[in-house]
Amino acid sequence: MKKVRELILTSIVVICLLGGWGVKETENPFIRTIDEINEQTDEKNWKEATEETEKLRDMYEREKWKYQLLGEESSYKGIEREIEKLLAALGEKDNQQSKVSTATIKVLYRDIYFMP
Fold first, then answer.
1. Structural domain of residue 99, as residue ranges?
2. Which of 17, 39, 87, 106 has a C-alpha 20 to 30 A away from that of 56?
């Protein structure tokens, strides 16, 4: 019984770890949304960029449990902080800070899913 439980747990962990590796970054909805935010800020569409950021925050909240399992606390908490900074930058129409925040979110996300 104990061996079966260990086998099931090991299988679940392996599936979770390998789950993100087969997906190309351009197919990833989280990364696509970040890219969309960057496009909107380049075009000075602040309202649309804010809507996309709220969508990103919702995606993050739905998937947060995965980030907690796969990543370090500093990475998944960092994403949360940077999303809030991004919303503030968009409210101020600060293109430079929004670029910094989106780049930071991408790096933290990659740290969680694509750690060496």
1. 24-113
2. 17
Distances (CA, A) of 53 to 9, 14, 116: 35, 31, 28
Q: What is the phi-psi region of residue 93: left when phi exceeds 0, alpha when psi lies from -120 to 50, beta otherwise?
A: left
Structural tokens at position 98: 């929004």
This prediction's pTM: 0.75
- As given in the structure block, the two tokens for residue 114 are 């694509």
Cα-Cα-Cα-Cα dihedral sign, residues 82, 85, 89, 94: negative
Domain annotation covers residue 17:
no
Query: Which tokens belong to 62?
Result: 């739905």
**Per-residue model confidence (pLDDT) at position 68:** 86
Domain assignment of residue 10, yes or no: no
Closest alpha carbon to 86 in 74, 99, 73, 75 = 99
How are the residues of the chain apportioned to helix, strand and coil, as percentages rounded to the nearest 5? 85, 0, 15
For residue 9, with 0-12 CB atoms within 10 Å meaning exposed, 13-18 middle and 19 or more buried, which class applies? exposed
Share of the chain above pLDDT 70, in %: 80
